[in-house]
Design the sequence.
């Protein structure tokens, strides 16, 4: 590993507070946390995510907005998907990615993409899967929706106020 090179960043104070909290949650210092974030971003993305990085980023930003609007509940993943397909541009991008209508079941690649999007939605807001008394993740199956099943969520990290 090469020697570290110091850099200076000018960041919004709320961003610094949020990153410091996230770093602390992981037991890391801010410098190591930022280094790891940058390294993860620069690593090649594999599989389905490589073809859909823009769509994933759009879903992540949307998830943060929906959370910040106070709309987090156990059905948060479904709420984000519903909000996404209600926006014409996001729906068009999603439909291009799955190769068909957003509400069509069993399209090739739809399951894996939805699984990836759901994972990114959950992690973007710092949520955890809701579990039953035996510790198993609780899933909900729905019909007539963009996704057919999703894991219920709890404990989203709140927006950081300045």
Sequence:
């Amino acid at each position: 590993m090469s020697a570290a090179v110091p850099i200076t960043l000018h960041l919004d104070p709320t961003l610094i507070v949020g990153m410091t909290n996230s770093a602390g949650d992981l037991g890391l210092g801010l410098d190591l946390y930022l280094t790891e974030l940058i390294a993860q971003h620069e690593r090649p993305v594999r599989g389905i995510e490589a073809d859909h990085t823009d769509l994933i980023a759009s879903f992540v930003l949307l998830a943060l907005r929906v959370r910040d609007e106070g709309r987090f509940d156990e059905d948060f993943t479904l709420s984000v998907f519903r909000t996404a397909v209600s926006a014409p541009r996001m729906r068009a991008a999603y439909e291009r990615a799955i190769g068909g209508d957003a509400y069509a079941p069993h399209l090739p690649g739809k399951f894996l993409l939805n699984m990836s999007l759901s994972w990114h939605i959950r992690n973007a807001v710092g949520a955890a899967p809701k579990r039953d008394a035996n510790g198993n993740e609780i899933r909900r199956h729905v019909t007539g929706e963009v996704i057919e099943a999703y894991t219920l969520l709890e404990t989203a990290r709140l927006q950081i106020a300045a």
User: Anything to note?
Assistant: Strands lie at 128-129, 139-141, 149-151, 153-154. The first strand starts at residue 128 and ends at 129. Residues 30 and 96 are 38 Å apart (CA to CA).
